[in-house]
């Protein structure tokens, strides 16, 4: 099946699965697709945007939402899934959810939810995460016997917490930990959270920058009901203003290969059984000089085991996986379309999760 479509027909794309074969459906949207302008944080257009995030006010996810949409109305949600549902039910326009951290790795729950829900990735935002240890005013470090926080935050501060010799307790989010300590007057506990959370809940910062690595970055995805459709005539555009965010060596790379830098695409797929199939899939990108920025595998929840009738050994059972890949190219580019056409030869399922501008600012 060919991915070469007349450019004026390039309004949208969609993959669907039908009885084991993957069908590619191209269709025209009647509504005007979202463009880069919908993402730009200009005070004029983001003032009305409601953005869902998981956690209490003061959570890092809220800071990530405000980094992209400084004037937005942030909407706290108890669970990640509630944030997905808030977008689906039109309660908010966008959701901002953490997907990976430079110290703690992937946030698997959100990979699973991306597949279960039909939202589109329309952007990403990278946030420098500076963790603080905080307790009720008057409480000293020596009095702290337990530390409450989000499991990711606890793992990012592993070294400091081991040195303190405290009990770690996982809660839903960092700011929620601070709120819990404040509202229950816990004098034997501290929270790992942002300095903003300390301010909001009236806690005293005992130590700042307690993450194991100074450069602690969390990458968040921005999700929406509609996808961004990169237009062919816009695909190589990088605003000169944006260039000032990069070092001079990177700037010259951008000017040489603007398209690679501007957009990235996230996909999820499953593979047929066979030797070297994943190797072949990776080669469809390598052969076209498309850079991969992330690969993640997750068990298939509904079909975790693959049963193979091996003539020498009888029935063999393997784990069956979903693969998530991010690559540096826009779906408007023929070589990206060709790569996915080629990938389809080995895939039993393929879905484009989104095509969006990469965030290189921290
Ligand atoms: O608990 C928060 O403050 C969050 O926003 C969640 C979260 C995460 O899930 O990774 C976000 C950023 C930090 O990496 C730690 C926690």
From TrEMBL:
Q: Name one Pfam family in it.
A: ACT
Query: Where is the ACT domain positioned along the sequence?
Result: 266-357
Molecular function as annotated in GO: arogenate dehydratase activity; prephenate dehydratase activity
Instruction: Name the enzyme's class.
Output: lyase
Under the cellular component aspect of Gene Ontology, which terms does the record hold?
Answer: chloroplast stroma
Localization, per the record, is: Plastid, Chloroplast stroma
Q: In which pathway does it act?
A: Amino-acid biosynthesis; L-phenylalanine biosynthesis; phenylpyruvate from prephenate: step 1/1; Amino-acid biosynthesis; L-phenylalanine biosynthesis; L-phenylalanine from L-arogenate: step 1/1
Question: Catalysed reaction(s)?
Answer: L-arogenate + H(+) = L-phenylalanine + CO2 + H2O; prephenate + H(+) = 3-phenylpyruvate + CO2 + H2O
Domain Prephenate dehydratase span(s) in chain numbering: 50-225
Keyword field: Amino-acid biosynthesis, Aromatic amino acid biosynthesis, Chloroplast, Lyase, Phenylalanine biosynthesis, Plastid, Transit peptide
Q: Which GO terms describe its biological process?
A: L-phenylalanine biosynthetic process
Q: What is its EC number?
A: 4.2.1.91
The answer on whether this UniProt entry bears the keyword Hydrolase reads no
* Keyword check for Amino-acid biosynthesis: yes
Function according to Swiss-Prot or TrEMBL: Converts the prephenate produced from the shikimate-chorismate pathway into phenylalanine.
Q: Report the protein name in the record.
A: Arogenate dehydratase
Q: Species name for this entry? A: Spirodela intermedia (Intermediate duckweed)
């Amino acid at each position: 099946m060919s991915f070469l479509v007349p450019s004026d027909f390039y309004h949208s794309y969609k993959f669907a699965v039908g009885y084991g074969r993957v069908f590619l459906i191209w269709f025209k949207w009647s509504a005007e697709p979202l463009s880069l302008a919908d993402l730009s944080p200009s005070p004029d257009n983001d003032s009305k945007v409601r953005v869902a995030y998981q956690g209490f006010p003061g959570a890092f996810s809220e800071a990530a939402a405000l980094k992209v949409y400084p004037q937005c109305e942030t909407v706290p949600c108890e669970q990640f899934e509630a944030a997905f549902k808030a977008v689906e039910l039109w309660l908010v326009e966008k959701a901002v959810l953490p997907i990976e951290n430079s110290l703690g790795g992937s946030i698997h729950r959100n990979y699973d939810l991306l597949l279960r829900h039909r939202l589109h990735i329309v952007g990403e935002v990278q946030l420098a995460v500076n963790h603080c240890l905080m307790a009720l005013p008057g409480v000293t470090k020596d009095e702290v016997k337990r530390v409450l926080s989000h499991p990711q935050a606890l793992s990012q501060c592993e070294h400091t917490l081991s040195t303190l010799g405290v009990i770690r307790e996982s809660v839903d989010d960092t700011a929620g930990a601070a709120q819990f300590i404040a509202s229950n007057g816990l004098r034997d506990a501290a929270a790992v959270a942002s300095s903003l959370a300390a301010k909001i809940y009236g806690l005293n910062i005992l130590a700042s920058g307690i993450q194991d690595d100074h450069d602690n970055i969390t990458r968040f995805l921005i999700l929406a009901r509609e996808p961004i459709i990169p237009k062919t005539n816009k695909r190589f555009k990088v605003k000169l203003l944006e260039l000032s965010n990069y070092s001079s060596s990177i700037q010259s790379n951008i000017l040489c290969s603007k398209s690679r830098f501007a957009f990235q695409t996230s996909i999820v797929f499953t593979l047929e059984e066979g030797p070297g199939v994943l190797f072949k899939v990776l080669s469809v990108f390598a052969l076209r000089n498309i850079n991969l920025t992330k690969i993640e595998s997750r068990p298939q929840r509904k079909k975790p085991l693959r049963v193979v009738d091996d003539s020498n050994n009888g029935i063999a059972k393997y784990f069956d996986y979903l693969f998530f890949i991010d690559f540096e190219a826009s779906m408007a580019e023929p070589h990206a379309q060709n790569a996915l056409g080629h990938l389809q030869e080995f895939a039993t399922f393929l879905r484009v999760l989104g095509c969006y501008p990469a965030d290189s600012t921290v």
